[in-house]
Specification:
DNA polymerase, domain 1; elongated; mainly alpha; 14 helices; 48% helix; three-stranded antiparallel beta sheet
Length: 381
């Protein structure tokens, strides 16, 4: 419980409210008795609801808290953490770094988001910044430093999904031919990405020992470029997987890897060493796209979408595409490529008619009535 005391030696803030919680005293001075009563009542109410927090607990600045938060991020890829650090440096800490955790308000967060929009920042960039701030403050809530997350109900502009680009097999061939003209082996690399569905980092990390018999490729390693340095680790899902290539591609690759030792990289830069995405994009990808006439704005990652599209057009199941791409679940595959799966209900009805019509006829009698079904009385328990 608490009490209010009037202090004669403090004319500006004479009313001191004191509150005891678990043997620890918290106090605060006010100029008016009514303000002290309201504060004291709020403390008692929060205590009764189990929402009371030590006022000093949230006095840590966001800059200090960000260091602790980053150290606690385990199990994430180096590139992901580097992205968080970049967002913190560029936008989050310049705005809130000197704020104590308990001083950040929803109004300030909304104003910050509005300012980024006024500067012309994209909805995706704004959303990423808000997500980092939200994650840090959510952890502070979990650690009982602040009672609630001030970003929880703050909205960001809607992110318009980028239009997916899928190449046809003929376009893949044209692009691969143009890439090969820029750099030896680049054409095979383009074909490999377009038919295997591997991520860039997974493809550039492939070694001779990754290839088995009958087009089997074991994916167990990935190379990620962070700050100009390559970081070698596991694939994005942290799980190995198997991809089986079509015969025409596996035969090309068999010739390509002939003579390589087990740990040799399969795809390398012009002068040897791992492929670097910025160099490949500049010297091979962009000129090849222009020369082959593929859709404008095509990204290297679109070859992964192309692989999904080509597989689905070959009647691959959702599960097969999920395993090929290394998605965590079939739901992720459907969320990304639902529009590519056959949705022709008339064709589906025709297939079902051909497969099941004869069986249905056998279960009925000659006049079309259903035969030999149990009576309702026979179904009772």
């Amino acid at each position: 419980m608490g009490s209010i005391q009037k202090l004669k030696d403090r004319p500006n803030r004479p009313y001191r409210a004191r509150y005891w919680n678990n043997g620890k005293q918290e106090s605060k001075s006010f100029s008016k008795r009514g303000e002290a009563e309201i504060w004291l009542r709020n403390q008692e109410t929060d205590h009764d609801r189990g929402e009371w927090r030590d006022p000093k607990a949230g006095s840590t600045t966001l800059s200090q808290w960000s260091e602790s938060w980053l150290r606690g991020l385990t199990g994430l890829k180096p590139k992901t953490i580097a992205g968080y650090e970049s967002l913190l440096r560029s936008r989050v800490l310049p705005q809130f770094g000197t704020h104590q955790l308990n001083q950040i308000t929803p109004a300030e967060v909304r104003s910050w988001i509005a300012d980024m929009g006024a500067e012309g920042k994209s909805p995706a960039t704004i959303t990423q910044n808000r997500q980092v701030l939200h994650a840090m403050l959510e952890q502070a809530v979990g650690d009982d430093l602040i009672p609630r997350n001030p970003t929880a109900h703050v909205k960001t502009p809607s992110v318009k999904p980028r239009r997916q680009l899928f190449l046809t097999a003929q376009q893949v061939s044209l692009l691969a031919t143009a890439a090969e003209a820029r750099q030896s082996g680049a054409g095979l690399f383009v074909r490999f990405l377009a038919y295997s569905g591997l991520r860039w980092g997974e493809a550039v990390a492939l070694r001779r020992k990754s290839f088995g018999d009958r087009g089997r490729v074991h994916i167990s390693e990935s190379a990620t470029e962070v700050g100009g340095k390559l970081i070698w680790g596991t694939p994005k899902s942290h799980e190995t997987r198997l991809v089986i290539l079509p015969r025409f591609l596996s035969e090309r690759l068999a010739n390509h890897v002939e003579g390589l030792a087990g740990d040799d990289l399969v795809f390398t830069a012009l002068r040897g060493g791992p492929l670097r995405v910025s160099n490949f994009r500049r010297s091979v990808w962009t000129p090849a796209c222009e020369a082959s006439g593929v859709p404008e704005g095509l990204l290297i990652h679109d070859l992964r979408d192309t692989a999904a599209s080509l597989a689905i057009s070959s009647d691959a199941s959702v599960l097969a595409v999920t395993r090929m791409l290394g998605h965590k679940s079939a739901k992720m595959t459907l969320d990304t490529y639902a529009s590519l799966f056959d949705s022709d209900l008339e064709e589906l009805a025709e297939k079902m008619d051909k497969k099941f019509a004869a069986a249905d006829a056998e279960d009925g009698d000659s006049d079309g009535k259903v035969a030999n079904l149990p009576r309702q009385a026979d179904l009772s328990v």
